[in-house]
Amino acid sequence: MSRSIKIFDTTLRDGEQSPGCSMNLKEKIEVARQLEAMKVDVIEAGFAIASPGDLASIKAIAAEIKDSTVCSLARTAKGDIDAAFEAIRNAASPRIHTFIATSPVHMEHKLKMTPDEVVERAVAMVSYAKKYVSDIEFSAEDACRSDLDFLVRIISQVIKAGATTINIPDTVGYITPSEMFNIISHIKNNVPGIENVSLSTHCHNDLGMAVANSLAAVAAGADQIECTINGIGERAGNTSLEEVVMAIKTRKDIYQADTRIDTHAIYRASRLIQTITGVPVAPTKAIVGANAFAHESGIHQHGMLSNRTTYEIMTPESVGIPATTMVLGKHSGRHAFEDRINALGYSLSKEDLDEAFKKFKVLADKKKLIKDRDIESIILKDTETEDKKLELESFVINTGNDITSTSVIKLKVNGKTVEKVSTGDGPVNASYKSINKISGLAIELVDYSLHALTDGEDAQAEAVVKIRIGESEDVITGRGVSTDIVEASIKAYVNGINKYYAA
Fold first, then answer.
1. Could you give the CA distance from residue 468 to residue 22 in angstroms, rounded to a whole number?
2. What's the CATH number where 131 sits?
3. Considering the domain boundaries, does residue 347 fall inside one?
4. pTM for the full model?
5. Mean pLDDT for each consecutive 10-residue tract of the chain (503 residues)?
6. 336 and 461 share one domain
7. How far apart are alpha carbons 409 and 430 in whole angstroms?
């Protein structure tokens, strides 16, 4: 009988630490709901002590999620653990995840603590956390550059103190699969009581081996994989959830294991994260990239027509990519629209469906054909803050190749219409200057991108901006969608400003 590997998703914590991937409360709840729908075992909702916003979002997720464990990260410090418990106390299944570094370089230069002091701190804080909840995860930060004998020592002690999950992070993405296999095997063979707890791994992708290292850990006996949707995270990212899950499912003969993940929800989760963060995946990205199931070679196409298994080791349907692309138009009715939404893996309330259908009809008057990506944009485009300080009312652009671009922007500011005029280097630049005047904010445009959601001359444009406001070092992502590229650009900029106010 195959083992069941727990999937611990840290998209909302480690994933959000990726530059430009910050999310507002509504977006975090939407992601958490999707993770729950995928049957993720543990959702690491944030780092409660990091900010009041993080604590509030973890609280909201804890109150919302019923079928997954909700976890907060905490350093081995009483204040961190107190905040973590405050955030998750109302969760149906709460977990505190506490950590301390164990590598010589971290203990000496970051912690400035002796190994004995580190063990003492870890034991004390696991015991302290245990008074709040029964489910305690302990992470030995930078474990993969730690002395193995010291790892055995500290893990043995925190298990005695009450830890129920032991996590082995490759914090800097340094090791190779064979080394990870050896570390996990050593712990399994030398730590008393390890058979009574879950053994986990958390890998980073600095050398491009996060997924391979995670799978090596599973092969050696690990019980849990920590990962993120699309592999987002600090630096080069984290272990990709979709890749490890599908590797385990596809090569069950090798790993003799499975997960409880509903793989049909993977594609929707990937699209949701791309939409919210504005960070697209490469076309060649395994599992969810645009080319993942594309076949151009004549030989490959011939084989596929004969038997799909000649060149496909999994089907697009198995990860939630619809088998066919249904094209809708202005004459399409509500039933066809609802059927396509369901086929794409979305389940909307009657109220949300009514609103989405209205937007579909408006878009259908502008476009000849409505494709799947158009439908997704309708469903997902309203993940911005409920209370919008700024709303676009109208814009007028005067531009050309031999005149200075002029933009007249009308925004509603707290319900009151404000109009400003600016000139600039092109229509988008002029529009952003007008918006800056209206907002009165010092806004730095860090990055701007524009791409078509679908093909054809009437395609919807998606604009993504990354902005920094005032003295803040935080980068905020704004997104806008329209059949008009200038309107999409304006909407993205306004969306980013509203996120700033919401935070």
1. 12
2. 3.20.20.70
3. yes
4. 0.82
5. 91 84 86 97 97 94 98 98 98 98 97 98 98 98 97 98 98 97 98 97 98 98 98 95 98 96 94 86 90 56 51 82 69 84 78 87 80 76 63 94 94 94 95 96 94 73 91 86 92 92 80
6. no
7. 9
